[in-house]
Amino acid sequence: MKGGGVLSVLVAVLVAMAVAVMAAELGHGAVTCGQVNFSLAACLPYLTAGGAPSPACCKGVVSLKGLARTTDDKRAACKCIKEAASHYPSIKEDVAAALPAKCGVSIDIPISTRTNCDIIH
Questions:
Q1: Rounded to whole angstroms, how far apart are CA atoms 80 and 74?
Q2: Is the dihedral of CA 51, 52, 57, 61 positive or negative?
Q3: Which of 23, 71, 99, 120 has a CA between 20 and 30 Å from the CA of residue 106?
Q4: How far apart are CA 82 and CA 93, in angstroms?
Q5: What is the pLDDT of residues 4-34, one digit of tens each?
Q6: Dihedral, CA atoms, 33, 38, 42, 45, nearest 10 degrees?
């Protein structure tokens, strides 16, 4: 009987995880800082040194645009960007602000530590 109970809990957890993953893939649910950080991780060398962003970085910017479609998601992503950037004092603000344009992407999320995320629409 104990083994069956543990198995039932395990199945329930796996089903819940699968539903969460499918919802995220379909664009439902809030953007997480993990998603934002993963999307922009390849941009760190560009953000600290300048030059040209890597193709992987630009792919991440495109991914971020796809993740943050609603106002709430854009605000959440903005807050995640600010939080992550606070751990890297060597990020250059002007370089960060230019990132979307350098990647040829128009996004409604400023890449800046100074943005008031609550005014994003």
A1: 10
A2: positive
A3: 23
A4: 11
A5: 443 333 333 333 333 344 344 444 568 999 9
A6: 30
